[in-house]
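If your schedule permits, I should be very grateful for your opinion on a structural question. Kindly check, if you would, that the fold set down in the tokens agrees with what the sequence suggests. Thank you for your consideration; the sequence and its tokens are set out here:
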Amino acid sequence: MKGQQKVWVLAGILWGLSVSAFAQPDTPVSETELPDESAAPSPWLLVPKVSSTPKVGTSAGFLAGYLFSLDQDSTSSMVGAVGSYSNTDSFLGGLFARTFWNGDSRRLQVFAGGGRINNDYSDFLGSGLPAATTDEMKAFFTRYLHEIDNQWFVGVQGVYTNYLIAGDDFRTQEILKLAGLNGVDSGALGLVLMYDSRNNQNAPVSGIHFTANNFAYREALGGEENFDSLNLDFRQYLPHGDGHVLAYHVSGRWTHDAPNGGYSSVTLRGYTRGQYLAPHSTSVEVEERLHVRNRFSINLFAGAACLYGDGEECGDSDNLYLSYGLGGQYVIKPSENMVVTMDYAKGEGDNSGFYLRFGQAF
């Protein structure tokens, strides 16, 4: 189960965050000085990124968004685009929308995108052989939530993915065939139950966020397989001291009758999603977010995950995955409490990574 793909440290530069060509950027908030409420913040958000990864080479990308409010009592909504391109001719891109209205009691998320990823493995699926694959992907996701009681929501969600893995040589194709990892064409619908008492949707410092949802993948919805998945996710944010926050995250994913392409994977920082697979997964992460000054904070984190099913159990150390690391975050838009985070994570063996992201890890 535990492949030995070699993962090099990701390197990147994030500079000129929250740059807008159409309006003045937000003014930094001083510890002894209140922000000027009369100056309207820019509705535009542009986050350029440069990174180097073992799977897609050196890549440059962006997140561009436009912020707007549907009512005064709701979190700002955002529509935008994301994209990246690498020197290995890999690319990813998509359009997204995240909307809140009626005092945050109605919520809608939509994403549509796709891309092509060229992968180079030094030890593919534990075979001891190098391999090169090309992954083609198309995806669509939507979720609607409706508040039914104080901070309790119910909703529906749907997803469609067309994910094709092709080996770049005969040997790799044969390995993929034997492993049953030729991709998955799937469509699913599901239900969502959520509790959300977070003080902020972008970078919370207090409250609880709990989600339980399922996906029923069916051939009638455009897929090639009939299988089911159940997902649970619990997050709590505990403020302490001068802007410090202790956050922890517990999650799990369980599948029934899933093909290999629908298996669960390790989602901890420091590991490549899809590198290790099993029917079920559980994980826990803890992160201490220490406020340093003004817009800057330092993050210290650690986590553990287990992959199991098909006769494998968490009592076997080969099915356990550890991760730890450090990073930082910077508030790029104080009016919306939006942040960019940078993390370095170390997993077992050669697994490691450096991440630049819009928003927090959880």
In short: Residues 170-179 form the longest helix (10 residues). The chain has one helix and 19 strands. The longest strand covers residues 131-149.
